[in-house]
Amino acid sequence: MSPLETAPLRPGQAETVYGVYRPAPYRWRTIKTLLEEHPQSVFPETIETDSLVLERLSPEYVDALELYELFARSRDDVSAVFEYVPQDPYSSVKDAHNQLAEAEASWDDGETAQYAVRTVDGDLA
Prior knowledge:
It is a single chain. The chain is α+β, with helices and mostly antiparallel strands and 125 residues long. The protein has 2 domains: 42 residues, no CATH class; 83 residues, no CATH class. Helices cover 27% and strands 15% of the residues. The chain is built from 4 helices and 5 strands; from the N terminus they run E-E-H-E-E-H-H-H-E. The strands form 2 sheets. It has a 3-stranded antiparallel sheet, with no helix packed on it.
C-alpha cells in the first residue's frame, strides 16, 4: 500500500509520510479520494478579483473560435503572449477545441485546473 493510500490511523496514532506530519485521527486524502467524496468541489469553477474573472477552461465557458482568434499563430503579437506559457499558439480552431477538451478531461479526472482569464467586462484576456 502506498503512503498516499494508507489505512486510517488508530486512535492516538500519528506519523510522518514523506516529511508531512499526519496527526491522528486524520487520514491522508488524495485528490481522487476528495473527488469521490465531494464531486466537482476540489477546484472552484470561477475565481473573481476586482479586475479579472478566471473561469474553468471548458466548452461550457469558452468558445473555441473565440479562443482561437485570441491566440492564433497568425497574430503578430502572439509570440509575446506565449513567451512564458508552456504551449504553442493555435494553428486552427480544431487546436483550440482540442485544448478545451483536454482541459475538461483533466478537470473531470481531478488532475489539473486550467482557467480562462477574462476582464470584468467579460472579454478574454
